[in-house]
Amino acid sequence: MKAEPGLFLESFLHTPDKEYRRYLKQRYSILNSLIEVKEGDEILDAGCGDGGGIKLILERKKNIQIVAVDNSIDILDKAKRNFSNYHNIIKFVKADVTQLPFPNNYFTKTVCFHVIEHLNVNDLNKALEELTRVTQKELFLGFPNKYSFLRIWEILSQEGIKGIINKIICFIKKDQPLIVKKPKYSVTPHVYYSANYIKKILRQFNFQSQIIKKVYFPFKFFDISQRDLSVPLGHSIIIKSVKIKNEEKKL
Q1: What is the total count of domains within the chain?
Q2: How far apart are CA 107 and CA 241, in angstroms?
Q3: I need a surface site. Which of 14, 26, 115, 215 has the fewest CB within 10 A?
Q4: Do the domain assignments include residue 179?
Q5: In the prediction, which pLDDT does 169 show?
């Protein structure tokens, strides 16, 4: 009997769904712990989903304003139900991250967590331009790491050895996105980027960026709370971008 491509790797790296749900919960918790929320902050949650990130922010500060944006009205309706008691703090808006209906520098902080991988590769620059345009100070961006070993697993599982060979160039060329048509935990294609690639685009929009956290999955092999930035791999990356002041740009 001929083995299916990637069967061994999938078996070796298989993580139960409950572990993946734990990972989803933990990544919101980690992002939240990295954001310094201050009284009076106006925060944009771009791609809010059902509000997992909002809940954690509200647990820390009450005297803030949050605008939660998603392009799915069904998901927004669910989020509204989850936070029906916070109508004076949270405003829900249906909008696309590539066309945000807000003035320049409207938010003190913007959070966009695991959104850009779902966009068409041609929409990335516009999305990052919009996120930086509406942000006064700090942008927190979370996304899957192109160089995670899980990318190899996903490609091998769906395309076999031939697919791996065809994608090797994407790993070699830092400026080339990696497209996976059938990612393990999604029904839509994903586009994966390197941190340097994203940082370079953000720099074009006058935001200086640095990696502040790498999130690890599956838990069977990595402890999410004990990995440091010296480790080159990680399933997800969190970047903090700060708007460059005019005097800093002149230097």
Answers
A1: 1
A2: 14
A3: 14
A4: no
A5: 67
The rounded distance, in Å, linking the Cα atoms of 80 and 175 is: 39
CB 195, CB 145: distance < 8 Å: yes
The rounded distance, in Å, linking the Cα atoms of 150 and 9 is 10
Residue 185 lies in a domain: no
Predicted pLDDT of residue 203: 96
In the chain the first and final C-alpha atoms are separated, in Å, by 65
Amino acid at 251: L
- Give the C-alpha distances (Å, rounded to integers) separating 117 from 53, 94, 135, 183: 18, 19, 21, 11
| 4 assigned to some structural domain | no
Q: What sign has the CA pseudo-torsion 239, 245, 249, 251?
A: negative
User: Where residue 42 sits, what CATH number does that domain have?
Assistant: 3.40.50.150
Strands 90-94 and 207-215: unpaired
Residue 250's pLDDT is 39
Domain that holds residue 32: 17-146+191-246
Q: Which regions of the chain are under pLDDT 50?
A: 1-16, 218-232, 247-251
Domain membership of residue 5 (yes or no) is: no
Give kind and range of the element (H or E) at residue 192. strand 190-192
Residues 6+ apart with CB under 8 A from 2: none
Compute CA distances 137 → 44, 113, 141, 246, whole Å: 12, 17, 13, 13
